[in-house]
User: Fold these one by one.
Assistant:
Number 1:
Amino acid sequence: MTGIRFDRVSVAYGGTTVLDALDLTVEPGEVMALLGPSGSGKTTALRAVAGFVRPASGRVYVGERDVTGLAPHQRGIGMVVQQYALFPHMRVADNVAFGLRARKVPRREIPARVAEALEMTGMGEYGRRYPRELSGGQQQRVAIARALAVRPGVLLLDEPLSALDARLRSGMLAELARLHRELPDVTILYVTHDQVEALTLADRIAVMDRARLQDVGTPRELYRAPRTGFTASFVGNANLLPVTVGAKGVAFGGVELEVDTRGAAKGAAATLCVRPHVVGLGPGPNRLAGVVGEIQWRGATHRLYVDVAGHRVMADVRELRRPPAPGDAVEVHFAPEDAVLLEAGVSGG
Amino acid sequence: MLVHNRAGKWAVWGLFLVLFLPLFALPLLVILAASFAGHWSGALPSGFTTAHYTAATRGDSLQALTTSLVTAVTASLLALAVGTWGALGAHALPRPLRRVLDALFVLPVAVPSVVVGLAVLVAFSQPPVLLNGTRWIVILAHTVLVTAFAYQSVSAAVLRLDPAYEQAAASLGARPAYVLWRIRLPLLLPSLTAAAGLCFTLSMGELSATMMLYPPDWTPLPVQIYAATDRGRLFTGSALAVVLMTATLLVLFAVARIRTRAAYR
C-alpha cells in the first residue's frame, strides 16, 4: 500500500509561486480530494506527484520512495486527465495495453489484464473500437481502465468529470465510488473545483486557495465546522456574519444570538458561519428580522436573500406555497447548534 | 461555396476559369500539345506523333527518369529524417536556441539555390570528403535544399501536438524513446507524409544547383529537358517534361494514399 506525502513542496513559474510550501499526507488507500477554485494550485500539486512539474523546493514521496527527482515514467502511478488523452491512433484495447507493453509485462498476460481492466469499467465490449467512435463518458471509462491496467498504487485524477454533462457526471461519480470499493488499496488523489464531487467521493478534502493549503479534514468536518472563512464559503456557500462575542452568545446587528462561543474572549470580534439550508423562515430561536432582497425559485427549494442589519443572509427553505415578495418584512431563524464561530476578519469568498 | 445564388456561382466560376486557364492550365496544355506534335508552325500544332514519347522512355531518357526518382526519394528520406530529428530536438530547446535552429534550417531556402550548389561544389571538391564526380554530391545538394521544408512542416506539427498524449504515455511507464516511437511519431505521421511529398516534388524539379554538380553518369530528368531544349529539340523536351510531371504526380498520389490511411487510423 502506498500513500503520498508532500513535504513543503513549492512550485514557481517564472517568479510566480503557484504552490506555496504544501504539507500534506495522503494515507494509503485513502481518497483525498484537492478542492479549490482555478489557480489555487491544486492541479500543480497533482502534476508534481506525476512528475510533470519540478518543485522549486520540497520533496514528494510516493509510499516510502522520494520521487522528486524521478522522471514521470519511473514513478509507477496512474493518471486520468480532464481531456482523457486517449491515443487516437490506437484501438481501445491497445490504449489499455499500452502501459503493460511499456512496462514489459509478459506478452501472454496482456490480453487477460486488458479484458479485466475494461470489464471493471464496463467497457468490455468496446476493445475493437477507436477512441473517436466513443462518447465522452465511454472515453472517460477507457481512460480509467488504461490507468488501472498497470495496477498502480496511486491513481491521480485531474478534474476527470468536468468534460461530462451533469447527468453523466453523477453516474460516473457513483462508478468511481464503486471502483474504489473494489480496489481499496489504491490511493486516489482527486483534483476538482466541484464541492459536490469532493463531498461525495473523498475520505478527506484538502481545500486550496491562492497557492496555499487552507484546510484539511473529512467532508463532514469541513462542512459542519470549517476552520476558515474560505472553506466555509467554498464548501457549501455559507453565510458569514461579523459578530461580537457576548456573555452567553454573540451580538449581531444589535440582537443577541445564542451560540456556542467555545471559550472565545468576551467582547472579541468573530465571524458566525451559518449554512443557508439550516436557516428557517418565520419565528424561532435566534430570530433575525429583515427585508427580502431577492427570491429565487429552485424547484424543490426557494433561496431567499434577506437583508438583516446591512448584511445579506441566504436562506434555503422548502418550496413555499406563498413566497414573500422582495421588499416584504420577514423573520429568519436558526438553531444554536447549527452555527459555527470562526475567527474574525473572514468574509464570504 | 460562400456564394449562394445561381448567377453569383456562375460568375465566380467564370472568373476562376478566366484567371486559372491562362495562368496555370494553358502552359501545361501547351506542353502536352507540343509533346505530341510533329510540327508547330501555325496557331496549333500539326503532325500528331508519339515518337517523342518513344524516345523519352528509353535509353538516356529512361536512365534520367530513374536517376531523378532515386535522387528525389533518397534526398526526401534523408531530409525527412534530419528535419524530423531537428524539429523534435528544437522543440525541447529553450526558446532563444530554438529560434537560432529555425534560422539555420531555413538558410538553404533563403539563399539562391545556385549559391547552395556552388557551396556544395566548393566544399566537397577536395579531401577529406571528396564527393565531386559522384552521384552523392547531387543527392547531398538536394537534401540540403529540401531539408528546410521538411523541418518547417514537421516543426509546425510538433508544436501543435498536444503534450497530454506524451504525458499520459509517460505516466503509464513508457520511456521517452518508447513514447517517441509509439505515440509521437505515429501522431505526426500525416505531417511527415505531407513533408515527404513536398520534398519529393521539389527535388524532382530541381535544376539550378543540379546543373553545377551532376556527373556524366548521373543526369536527372530536368537536366535532360534543359539539354534537349537547349539543342532546339522542343518537342522532345516537352515529352520529357510530361513524363516528369506524370512520374511526380503518381508518387504524390501514392503518398497521399498513405496519408489518408494514416489519418483514418
Note: Chain B touches chain A through 20 residues (CB under 8 Å).
Number 2:
Amino acid sequence: MTARYDIDALRARLGDTRGREYWRSLEALAETPEFKEFLHREFPANASEWLDPAGRRTFLKLMGASLALAGVTACTRQPAEALVPYVRQPEELVPGKPLFYATAMPMSGAGMGLLVESHEGRPTKIEGNPDHPASRGATDLFAQASILGLYDPDRSQVVTNLGVVRPFSAFASAVQAVVSTQQETQGAGLRILSETVASPTLAAQIGEFLLRFPRARWVQWEPVGRHNAREGSRLAFGEYVDSQYALEKATVILSLDADFLCTGAAGVRNARAFASRRRAAGERARTNRLYAVECTPANTGTRADHRLSLRPSQVEAFVRAVAVQLGVAGVAAPELPEAAKTWVAPLVKDLQASRGQSLVIAGDGQPPVVHALAHAMNDLLGNVGATVVYTETAEARPMNQVAGVQELVADMTAGAVECLLILGGNPVYTAPADLDFAAALEQVPFRAHLSLYEDETSALCHWHIPETHYLETWSDVRGDEGTAAIVQPLIAPLYGGRSAHEVVSALGERGERPAYELVREYWSKVTGLSMQAPAPAPAAPPSGREIAPTGAAESAPPPQSQAAPSVGAGAAPAPPPIAPAPRPPLSPFDREWRRWLHNGVIPNTAFAPRAVTLQANFAAAPATGGAAGSGLEVVFRPDPTVYDGRFANNAWLQETPKSLTKLTWDNAALVSPATAVRLALASGDLVELRQGSRSIRIPIWLAPGQPADTLTLHLGYGRTRAGRAGTGTGFNVNPLRTAAGLDMLAGVELVKTGETYPLASTQDHWSLEGRNLVRVATLSEYDEDPEFARKLEHQPITDITMYGDFKYEGYAWGMAIDQNVCTGCNACVVACQAENNVPVVGKSQVLNGREMHWLRVDRYYTGDLENPDTYHQPMPCQQCEAAPCEVVCPVSATTHSSEGLNDMVYNRCVGTRYCSNNCPYKVRRFNFLLYQDWNTPTLWLQRNPDVTVRSRGVMEKCTYCVQRINHARVAAKLEDRGIRDGDVLTACQAACPTEAIVFGNINDPDSRVSRLKANPLNYALLAELNSRPRTTYLAIVRNPNAELEAGRAADESEGRR
Amino acid sequence: MAVPQKPVEGQLLEGGVPAGRAAPAVIAPGHTFESVTDKISGIVLTKRTPIGWFIGFAVAFAFLMLLNLTIGHLLMTGIGIWGNNVPVGWAFDIINFVWWIGIGHAGTLISAILLLFRQQWRTSINRFAEAMTLFAVACAAMFPLLHTGRPWLAAYWLLPYPNTMGLWPQFRSPLIWDVFAVTTYFTVSLLFWFTGLVPDLATLRDRAQSRAAKVIFGVLSLGWRGSARHWQNYEVAYLLLAGISTPLVLSVHSVVSFDFAVSVLPGWHATIFPPYFVAGAIYSGFAMVMTLAVPLRKFYGLEDFITMRHIHNMTKVMLVTGMIVAYGYGQEAFFAWYSANPYEGYMMLNRMTGPYAPLYWSLIAINAGMIQLFWFRRVRDNVVLLFILSLFVNVGMWLERFIIIVTSLHRDFLPSSWDIYQPTRWDFAMFTGTIGLFLSLFFLFIRFLPAIAIFEMRTIVPEAKLQPEQRG
C-alpha cells in the first residue's frame, strides 16, 4: 500500500489520545478502509460473514432462488396437454410393471395364441401363449411384427365416401338402404368378399346374413390360401379336411415342396415338434430324417438331410414315381429326371422301414393331386392316426376360393352385383391377373371396403371403412387344429375403426352392435352357458364398467391379465392371500369367459380326429405340370417377410433380411447360378418376364439351390398404395399370376432390359471360406468322435492372464444356440427389434451396410452351388469374457458387469466405433444418422420403456435383454429367492419356435444352458482368439441315409474333378 | 545496422563445399549477411504481394470453406454422411488422420534430430518444414474429434479431468494414448517453431515500415534485442526443445500405429507396425516438404537458399525411409504366410486379389517400385520430376493407410459380416477441405512470416566464417 498519509493529521490524532495508543503501521494509525478490511480478514473468512446479519439470509435467498431457477432451466419443454390421473387406479396396474394379456392373432384362416405385454395400457411386445397349441410360447415373425402394424401411422383413420370424410353412421344407413332394396330379390345382388375367415362368430354372423338373403353370396379369397390342400383333400377323401401332423412321432419325413417348418398356421407348432427329434441334447437314436423335395430353396430344405431340387413340372412325376414304388394303386409311373431316379429306391426303402413313423407332407404350392398322393402314401404307410390325423378345417367355411372369386368377377362383369362388401384383404392387388378384378369392380354400383389401410382396393371403392387392428377389437379365432381363442383388445382403437363383426352387424336388422357383445353372444349360445347372472347384491354396481377401456369396446370389462411368461412360472408360489372384496356374483358364462380370457384358449375346442376314406382312382387324372414346354418355369411364393403384401408397410418386416436371400426392402426373381450363367445374368440385372400378353419387370437374384430354369417370384411387393414404407418397394409379380397358375407357371420368357437395380442384401458373402464357423458331422461321424466340434480348432489356453481370472460369484449369464434345430425363421430377429427399440434404417442405409439388427441370422452355404447345404447361425452379441471391444473404448462406455454381461453405456458413448472395429463377430451397431423416429407420436407408444431409445452417434448392441434380467431380479428379491432357471427368457429365446436359443445362469450346473454347454457338441465361435464368448453354439449332426450319401459323395468328387 | 547477430563458431561451419561430383553447396555463392536478410525479409515486408499468391490463396481458401461446409453438415447430420459402415467403422476419417500426422513428422525430424546431428543443410528448410508440421497436425487433429459420433462430448471426455461422475478416460485404449501423443506433439512443435522464430521476428520488427507490422512483430518478438545473453538463453532453450522433440518423432507415430496393432484384427494386429509407421511418416513428410519446397524456391526465387543439396538430401531420406516401408510390406506378406493363420493369410490374399487390389498394387508400384528412381542422380537433379514424384509419394502413402484400414476391416473373421466400403462425396469434401486448410495456412505463413530462418542462414554464409576484424 503506498497511500500518502497526511502526517500532520496523524500527529494530531496521536496528540488527541490519552494513555498509550498502540499502532502497528501508518495504515493502522490512519484507519484506512484497506487496513480495516485487512484486520477483518484475519479472522476465518466464514466467521466474518456471520457478522453481517443479512448475509446468511441473503445467501439462502440467493441460493434458494438460483436452485429454483436452475430447476426451471433444467425442464424440457412440456407439451401443453391435460393430464388425467387415474381416479381409481386399476387394481393390477403397477406403473413400471408390465401386464400380459392373452389374445390371438388371426391370419390367413387360422389364429395364433399370444400373450401381449402392456405397459400402462400400451401394448409393446408380443409373446406366444404357452397354453395355445399353435404357439406353445413361441411365435412366428409376423406375430412379432404385428405390434408395429398396430401403431402404423399410415393406417387409415377415417370413414370416407368417394374421398369425403363421413361418419360411420352415414355408411351404416347407406348400406342399410342398399340392402333393404335387395329384400325382394332375396339378396341376389349382394356379395360379401372376405379373407379366409377363421372366426366362428364372424362366420355365424355372415351365415345369419345369408339366411336372411339366401341368394346373396359370400366369397372368400386368400392370395396365399390353402387352395391346393383343400382340393387335394377333396380329391382324396371327397371332403374338405385338414391334415394335422404329429412330427414328434415321425422318424422319416418326406417333404414335397412343403415349407412346413416356417410357413402356415402350423409352422410354429411343426417346428417345435420337428425339433424335438433333432436337438443336440436329444437322444441320438431318435433323430429323425428329413427328405425335402423343393422347387425353390426354403427354410425347411435347409434342415433336410437330403434335399432334391426339382423344377415345378418334375415334382408331380417324382411323387407319382414314389407312390408307384410304395404301391399306391392306380398310379402310372412316369419318366423321371436323372437326379431324382437315384432317390426313389432308397427313399421308399427308408419310408417303408418306418411304417407308422413316417410322414409325407405336400406343400401348399403343389397341385391337388400331389396332396392326394401324399394322403394315399400316408395311408399306405400306416401313418394315419399316428403321424397324421385328419380333422375338420380351421377355416369356418372351406370353399373353392379360386372358383368363388372367378364366379364373383363374372357376376360383377355381368352387372349382377348391386352391392359388394369387401371385408379386409386387398383383392384389387391380389386377385388373379386374368380376372381383371379392378375392371369388374367398377361395374358394381355400391362397393365398400373395410381395411387397415386405404389401399389399392379402397381407391376403387365408394366407401372405405378403417378396420380395427386385432389388438384393438374383440373377436375370436380358431387355431389350425381347432382350438378357439378369444381375441381381446389391448388398447382402444387408435384411429377409431370398426371390426368386421361390427360392419356385418350393421347390415343386420338390429343395426350395428359392439363386437364384444357379438362374440360373447355367440359363445354363450355355443356353450349353452347363461349370461344371466344370479340375482346380484342390491347395491353392487356391475363389475368392470368403471374401468373399462374407452372407445369402441365401451361395455367391455377389463381384459384379463397374466403373469409374465416364463418357463418356471408354474412353480411360482401363490401370492399371499388378500381378503377378497365382495364381488357381484358372476353368470355361469362370465365365469368361463374370464377363464378363457385369462388363459387365452377356450378349452376342449380342438377338433377331434376324423375318419376319412380314400377315394379310388383320384390319381387317374393326367399329370398337370407335365407339359413344361419351352421357356422358364415360375414358382410363386408368399414373401418370407411381407407375406402376400399385407405387411408391406411394416418397416420391421421390410428390413428383416429374408432368411435365404438376405434381401431387404425388395423382392427379386430367384434363379440358380447355373441358369444365370447360361442366360448371362447377374444379381441386380433388371429383366422382363413375359408370358402371353402379360409381363412384369423384376431384378434377378442368384439363389444357390434353386432348380435349373426355374424362377421364384415372391408376392407382396410393388404395392402402389401401401404407405410410406411399402409404397413403391419391390416389384409386383401378381400381373403374371393367373387363376390357373396361382402357384406355378410354365413357358415364361425372360428378356434382358440391360438395366440394373440395386438390391439391398445384408449378407453379400455366401461361403464359409473354409473357416470352422459352422461345424457339422454326420451321425456316424459323431458316434465315432462326439467331441469333433472342439477338435476342429485350437482351443485357447484359459489361465494365461497376469491378473488372474475374474471370479463370477453370483450369476453368470450365458447362452447356447442349438444349430441343429435353427430353421432361420427370423422370429428372433423381429422379436429382438420389438423388445429393444431397434430402429429401422431404410434401404439406402442397408445398401451401405448400416442395418441395426442386434441379432442377425448368418446364412452359409457349403458344397455344390446348385444344391448346397445351408446353415443358419443366429449371431447375437457373444458377450465375451475377455471382450476385445472393452479395452479399446477410450471413455469406458462398454464395460463388463459382475455377471459377465458386456454392458453398453449409451450416455457415455462418444461413438469412436473402435469397439466395432475390434469386435471379431461384428455384432455392434452404430447410429450413423438419427435412425430412431422421434417425430411420429404413435410410434412412441410402441417403445419398450425398459430400454433406452438410442440417438445419433451412439454404438449399440445386444444386451442379453438385461432389462428382463433386472425384472426377474426384482421379482426374485421380493420373494427372497434367487433367479431360477427359466425366469429370464431373452426376447429371441422366447420367440424361437424350436427353442434353439437357451439362456441362463452358467454358474448353476443344473440350468438348461449349463447342461447344453456341457454337451460335447458345444463349441465357441472363434475361440482361438481367446475372447471367451459366453454365447456358444452346438454343432450340427446330420442324419443322412447312407445309400444316398454315397451317391452324393460320388457326385461331389466328380464335381471337383 | 541493428540486425541481431548470432555469435559465430566459424570452425564448426563449412560454408564452401567442393565442386564436382560432391554434393552442391547448402547456399549459393556470393551471399552476404545483408543479401540473405534482404531476400528473406523482403518476401514478408514487401508491399506488393505477388498476384500468384492471391490466386493460390483464393483456391486454398475455397477448399477451406468447403471444409467448413462439410463440418457444419457433419455436425448437423451425423457421420452417416460419410461412407463408413459396419464392418468398416473407420475409413477416410482415420486414413486422413494418419496421413496428416505422418506428414507432420518431417518437420520435427528436420528441426530436432538434424539439429542434434548438426546437419547444416537443415537450415534453409527447417522453418517451413516446422510450419508444415504444425499445419499438418492441425489438420490431423480434427479427425479424431470429428470422426466420433458425438464430437461435442468427445471434445472433453477423452481428456483426464476431474469430474462429478468420478470417471477417467480408459487408459488402456490406444485412442487415449493418441490424445496424449498428438497434443504433446502439437504443443512441443508449436513451442519449438515459435522459439526459433523469435530472432527473425525481431529482424522483421526492426525492418518493418508500417506501424501495424512494427507493433505486431514487436509483440511477437518478445523484446528480443540480440544480446549475448539472449542468444545464450535462446540456444539452451532451442536445444532443450530439440531434445524433447526427438523422442516424439519416434513415439507419436508409434502410438498412432498402436491404434491398429493393439486390436485383434488381421492386418492390424502386427508387431512390425511401430517402426514401419515411423518410417512411413518420415517418408511421407519429406515428400510433402519436397512438394512445398520446389514451388516455393521457384516462385520466390529462393534457389540460392534451397539448393540442389537440399533437394538431393531430401530425396535420399525418402529413398531410405521408402525402402524401410517397402520392407514392411514384405514382412506383412511374409508373416501372413509364415504364421499359417488362415485369417492373416486371407487378409493378404484379399489385399492382393480382392476388390481393393488395384489400390494395393498402386501402392506397391509407388512405394516399392517408383522410389527406386531416386537411386539415379539424373532423377535427383530433375526438380520438376521430383515434384511430380513427391506428389505420387503422398498419394502412395495415403493409399497405404487406405489399404491398412479399409481392407483389414471390410473382410475380417466372419464372412457373413463382410461388406464393401465406398466413400461418398462428403468423404472427399472433408479430405480436400483439410488440404485447403493446410494450404491456406501455408500461404498465410509464407506471406506473413519468414519462411526461411534468416539468422540461421546467416550462419552459413561465407562471411560468418570471418573473424569480426576481418569483416569489411
Note: Chain A is about 30% helix and 20% strand.
